[in-house]
């Protein structure tokens, strides 16, 4: 990716944020476009739309119409939605035949950023979608690839004096986005990218919620598959935690560890009958013979109990 100057990157993103709501520029007009002439953008980073929220928006559109025009860019045939896919989907549910749009000639890069910024204004945005969108914008701002962003952000947090220019760019970007500080993003949300890939895939492709995904991601690896299945079936955060607790209770204990703990328990040994203590002593001596002198922790406990 060719790197541009800091001023150029800040200026481009600032213009996109300023133009997020499609207010007509001089010589630019709104137009009504039939829904079947619009198509979603392949650059759209938002992968899931809450069905209930779409129905609520559709009801609002039936009553009031589409108050905020969609931002689109012209294609050879029809238009590609740059910002406003959620309104377009809700308009279809509402039975509308057309929606107002503002058409602008935008490059793929500009269209991607405009869609990202528009999506970041949504209150119901999935956390993984938010993280992916913000990482993409940070990559553009700092002239990095998305894969390089986490390490760079952590470096700027831990050693801010080494790159004050990057810190300034990040502060300005996050101030424009209105989604908290960049340091809070690094500490609280960026870590999601370290979660297991099946969990991230479920969040991206199936709309798995952040809180339940966190329970699955924090569970031991051997239980994550079962918990993920339950989460995708609709289990709540509390239900997942209860199930995880049951896994831990049902887990068979190491028999060797059980024996060692028993041999070290004076009260338990004292409760044995004389015959039982003699048998324990014989077994301990047999283990010592087989495994080597002193190999069995607590081997003297049984003799102490007998004596």
TrEMBL record:
<dbReference type="GO" id="GO:0005694">
    <property type="term" value="C:chromosome"/>
</dbReference>
<dbReference type="InterPro" id="IPR004437">
    <property type="entry name" value="ParB/RepB/Spo0J"/>
</dbReference>
<dbReference type="InterPro" id="IPR050336">
    <property type="entry name" value="Chromosome_partition/occlusion"/>
</dbReference>
<dbReference type="GO" id="GO:0007059">
    <property type="term" value="P:chromosome segregation"/>
</dbReference>
<dbReference type="GO" id="GO:0003677">
    <property type="term" value="F:DNA binding"/>
</dbReference>
<dbReference type="InterPro" id="IPR036086">
    <property type="entry name" value="ParB/Sulfiredoxin_sf"/>
</dbReference>
<keyword id="KW-0238">DNA-binding</keyword>
<feature type="domain" description="ParB-like N-terminal">
    <location>
        <begin position="31"/>
        <end position="120"/>
    </location>
</feature>
<dbReference type="InterPro" id="IPR003115">
    <property type="entry name" value="ParB_N"/>
</dbReference>
<dbReference type="Pfam" id="PF02195">
    <property type="entry name" value="ParB_N"/>
</dbReference>
<protein>
    <submittedName>
        <fullName>ParB family chromosome partitioning protein</fullName>
    </submittedName>
</protein>
<comment type="similarity">
    <text>Belongs to the ParB family.</text>
</comment>
């Amino acid at each position: 990716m060719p790197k541009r100057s800091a001023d150029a990157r800040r200026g481009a993103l600032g213009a996109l944020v300023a133009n997020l709501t499609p207010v007509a520029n001089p010589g630019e007009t709104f137009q009504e476009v039939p829904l079947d002439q619009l198509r979603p953008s392949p650059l759209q980073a938002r992968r899931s739309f809450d069905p209930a929220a779409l129905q609520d928006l559709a009801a609002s559109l039936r009553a009031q119409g589409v108050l905020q025009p969609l931002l689109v860019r012209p294609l050879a045939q029809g238009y590609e939605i740059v910002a406003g896919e959620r309104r377009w989907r809700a308009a279809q549910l509402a039975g509308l035949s057309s929606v107002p749009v503002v058409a602008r000639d935008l490059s793929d890069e500009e269209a991607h950023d405009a869609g990202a910024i528009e999506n970041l204004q949504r209150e119901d945005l999935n956390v993984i979608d938010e993280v992916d969108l913000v990482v993409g914008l940070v990559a553009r701002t700092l002239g990095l690839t998305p894969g390089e962003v986490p390490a760079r952000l952590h470096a700027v947090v831990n050693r801010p004096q080494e790159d004050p220019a990057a810190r300034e760019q990040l502060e300005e970007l996050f101030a424009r986005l209105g989604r908290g500080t960049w340091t809070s993003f690094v500490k609280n949300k960026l870590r999601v990218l370290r979660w297991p890939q099946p969990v991230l895939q479920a969040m991206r492709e199936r709309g798995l919620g952040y809180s339940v995904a966190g329970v699955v991601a924090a569970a031991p690896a051997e239980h994550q598959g079962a918990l993920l299945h339950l989460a995708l079936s609709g289990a709540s955060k509390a239900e997942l935690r209860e199930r995880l607790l049951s896994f831990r209770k049902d887990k068979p204990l190491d028999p060797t560890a059980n024996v060692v703990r028993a041999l070290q328990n004076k009260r338990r040994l004292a409760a044995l009958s004389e015959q039982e203590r003699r048998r324990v002593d014989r077994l301990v001596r047999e283990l010592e013979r087989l495994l080597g002198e002193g190999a069995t922790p607590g081997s003297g406990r049984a003799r102490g109990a007998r004596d």
